[in-house]
Amino acid sequence: MNVTTVLDAKGLACPMPIVRTKKAVDAIESGQVLEVHVTDKGAIADIPAWAASGGHTILEHTEEDDVLKFWIQKA
Amino acid sequence: MTNKVAIIASNGGLFDAYKVYNIATAAAATDKEVTIFFTFEGLNLIHKQGMQALPMPEGREAIAEGFAKANVPSIPELAAMSQELGVKFIACQMTMDVMGLTVEDFVDGIEVGGAVTFLEFAKDAAPTLTF
What we know:
Order of helices and strands of chain B: EHEHHEHEHE
Number of strands of chain A: 4
Strand content of chain B: 15-25%
CATH superfamily of chain B: DsrEFH-like
Oligomer: heterodimer
Distance between the termini of chain B: 24 Å
CATH class of chain B: Alpha Beta
CATH topology of chain A: Translation Initiation Factor IF3
Strand order of the largest sheet of chain A: 1-2-4-3
CATH superfamily of chain A: TusA-like domain
Number of domains of chain A: 1
CATH class of chain A: Alpha Beta
Helix content of chain B: 25-40%
Number of strands of chain B: 5
Radius of gyration of chain A: 11 Å
Distance between the termini of chain A: 16 Å
CATH topology of chain B: Hypothetical Protein Ychn, Chain: A
Number of domains of chain B: 1
Strand order of the largest sheet of chain B: 4-3-2-1-5
């Protein structure tokens, strides 16, 4: 996958992962991909909900050693 | 579908502040137009000094440690972030008069208004939330 930006939001509590994700997506172009790393369990539901709200696509989602990773393609 | 979220902040405790600012920042980060109307004790949430040390509910002081451990941002940080994301703050004129407060007592960038100012914004907002 061609990732444009990687955002490390590990250790941050709600609502910071969403705020940081928004800013990172604002900074990339339509069609580009943001890779987000978070440890906030709320993000499992929040990041897909946030992406759906803006029409962005979650290409992939993984969970390893308490780190959640999302690949978001900007609408 | 409306793109507005209207929030009434009428309580001044630490938990109240987190409820208000977490929802406000999350909504603003989801590209909603957000306005918070601060009234009565809710004015503590934008008061320059008051917001630095908002009270915990009695008997729940131990939770302070939980806040630190969870790496939750402070209330002044969340307030600043809300404004940076475009959240509009309206302080209730009537409550300010009753409590002897002026715009100088509050963080920069707020508006002062009455109930109608808020209602005008909230008339087509969904949801409108009260804390």
